[in-house]
Amino acid sequence: MDLVIKNTHFLDRTFQIRFGSIVVEKQKIKRIFYSESEVGTFLAESGFSGGVVDGANLVCIPGLTNAHLHPSKDLYRGLFLGQSLPTILSLIHQQNSQESDEDQYWASLYSYKRMIQMGVTTVGVFTSRYQPDLKAAEASGIRCFITYAVNEKWNGDGVSPQVISDEQAFKRVESFLASDRSERISLSIGTSSELTSSPQFMKDLYEVAKRNEVLFSLHVSEGETQSNKCREVHGLHSVEFLNSLNLLTENTLLIHASFLTPKEVELVANVPVRLVSCPLANAFAQSGLFELLKLNDGKCSIGLGTDAGMINPQNNLMADALFSYFSQRVMSREKQVDFESIFKMITVAGAQALGLERVGVIEEGWEADIAVFSIPDHAPIDEYNPLLLISEILMTSLARYVVIGGELVIDDYEFKRMDEGFLNQKFYGIKSRLATPLMEHLQAFEAGE
User: Fold this and answer.
1) Collapsing DSSP states into helix, strand and coil, what is residue 60?
2) 256: closest CA among 300, 199, 317, 305?
3) Domain map (residue ranges) of the chain
4) CA distances from 19 to 8, 36, 89, 382, 435 (A)
């Protein structure tokens, strides 16, 4: 729908708070007026027939990009406090067979809805069972970059993720790339990690991605165990191994990269590869700390993601941004990454890391992805540090309005795509049914059974 957010405050390209009116037409930000008289004249003389939102006491920000999310794993959010990543992954891989496609659909739809309520308008989804996640993305209205991961080997320890033959894998990839989808959905293909594919399979998959003009994505170097296992299996640490296959290019998206050797950091910094850091999930799983100080000035593009609920109990993108900012300050007194750079990683830079253009800035001609929040009472919005104000709002409030691709998906706090009470009921019913046997498996694992 066409829409005017009238006489409001908004965060502009320079990350400053401006006052004006935002006109949305045909899914784009068509005009921005900077005076009340201009927008009044426009509404009186243009014949505009869309909706009008009174922007008083509101602030608009570009929709956020959560660049890495396993949406259905919200089912297990908060269940694994204190567990190691290998333990968690083994239990989750074992649990996957208990989740039906319908379970995954409702869990993912709930996760997307929750993200939208927090101002996230774009998600980077990683899945080995794409139909439910894709269907849920379409149902939610969110902008979605979805990676379908196929695995033809398992070189790790613990319970294996799903492994299929290379012939099956390429047939499934072909079907995925032919999926019917709206313009808000973009595709990527990949493999779960450097431990789930042979070198030749990985190279062939990369070529399929490049030929189809989509990105090639995988989790890489997610902790010391994974890095060392890669060296044991392939003779090189994770990023060095990918470099030996000529896969460190602008067509590759590396997720995590949280445990890199100094040589690997230098490699990554000097190529135009795409990266997604998941700082809180990596900290929770003791998987290392992303070398943001060294990589931020490199040729790579960087986004932030929350990853999966079982290793990120908050699953709140602003919490990851704040943690990323403060943790890198601890690492160095001499060099800092400013908060503006961090905020770009959850807006425009995060979208660019996923290959999405003209997403993540409130500017004429850009995609109309906008999150609108109420301003806290008595907040001196024209004096407050704008990014500090926004971070405070994002940590304490839900969005009052959310526009995605020109569509008003949240209207006065109401999720317009589906009855929220019904969706919550479906989600918590599935969570209750699946969590009990999972916790029994965890107790048996801890007991060594």
Assistant:
1) strand
2) 305
3) 3-62+360-415, 64-353
4) 6, 9, 47, 10, 47
- Quote the CATH superfamily of domain 64-353: Metal-dependent hydrolases (3.20.20.140)
Distance, CA of 349 to CA of 311 (rounded, Å):
24
CB 196 within 8 A of CB 151: yes
Instruction: For residues 265 and 255, give the distance between their C-alpha atoms in angstroms, rounded to a whole number.
Output: 14
In angstroms, the CA 11 to CA 137 distance is 27
Q: How far is CA 302 from CA 297, 324, 360, in A?
A: 10, 12, 14
pTM of the entire predicted model: 0.95
Provide the residue type at 217 as one letter.
S
CATH architecture of the region 3-62+360-415: Roll (2.30)
What percentage of residues in the chain have a pLDDT greater than 70? Answer: 97
Residue 117 to residue 415: CA distance in whole angstroms: 8
Phi-psi sector, 256: left (phi>0), alpha (psi -120 to 50), beta: left
The token duo for 107 is 């869990």
First and final CA of the chain: distance in angstroms?
57
Q: Tens digits of per-residue pLDDT, 134-157?
A: 999 999 999 999 999 999 998 877
394 token code pair: 């994002």
Nearest to 370 by CA among 401, 345, 340, 344: 401
d(CA 98, CA 139): 23
